Amino acid sequence: MRIYISIDMEGIAGTFSWRQDQGEWRPQVRRLMTLEANAAIEGALQGGATRVVVNDSHDTMANLDPELLHPAADLIQGTPKPLSMVEGVQEGFDGAFFIGYHAAAGTAPAVLDHTYSDESAWEIRINGRPVNEAAINAAVCGHFGVPVVLVTGDQVACRQMQEWLPWVRTVAVKEPLSRYAARSMHPERARRAIREAARAVVSEMASGRRFDTFVFETPVVVELTTPHTGQADVAALMPGVERIGPRTVRYQETDYVKAFRAMRAMLVLAGSSR
Length: 274
Ligand SMILES: [Zn+2]
Fold this sequence. Notes:
The protein has about 270 residues and is of the alpha/beta class. It has 2 domains: about 1-115 and about 130-205, Rossmann fold, CATH 3.40.50; about 220-270, Gyrase A, domain 2, CATH 3.30.1360. It is built from 6 helices and 12 strands. The strands form 2 sheets. It has a 7-stranded mixed beta sheet with strand order 3-2-1-4-7-8-9, with helices on both faces. Strand 7, helix 3 and strand 8 (about 170-180) form a beta-alpha-beta unit. Helix 1 runs parallel beside helix 4 and helix 5 packs across helix 6. It is globular, with a radius of gyration of 18 Å. It comes from Geochorda subterranea.
């Protein structure tokens, strides 16, 4: 049983602000992320996992403390990575966990809501439907035949995920009060809940339960609406991109991974607008 883990920061118990990424709070947020990853790893191992790979998926993608991480897991860190938040999943796994995930840009109240880029993405739609990072990444996993089986984050992130993947097990570790405020479970209780959910879902898989993979219908149409028109001006320079509105660009592709990479390239371009 091979388990893949993508871990973000915004949906970890005890986080509520990007200021925690800086200065004196930074060591604590690294520890919170690493210990929550460990809870998921321990649960997976207890359930019968034989291989676990963790991908650090937040911002610089250099958050987890490699020495504090459970020694059974391999750790992927740094940026850029070809598959970004789901780099490594292409090796093939029996199931994926998304730990510490958050709601889509424009959701309220939801802790630190955004979609891949807080500065470049007002909204991202795939095949006409607004998406969150979990849905975008679940479809990359699905492209490689890997089902997402566990998602953790704030209550709204978990609810959004169940709309996309009704079969997924979720652990809500905090209640959002606003974009920058939350009422959180104690990290130790959150870790216990995550450990137990990971153990339960991997045991089910080990005893033969099959989970559906998630994919978008093709051709895949990605639409990016940027906060201001200057960002769309730059994103529209990319070959194959169509400008369909003052703040909106569109890209169509039959291969989902190519569409995913194009989405990320559009976000980087949009972010370069001054
Ligand atoms: Zn993040």
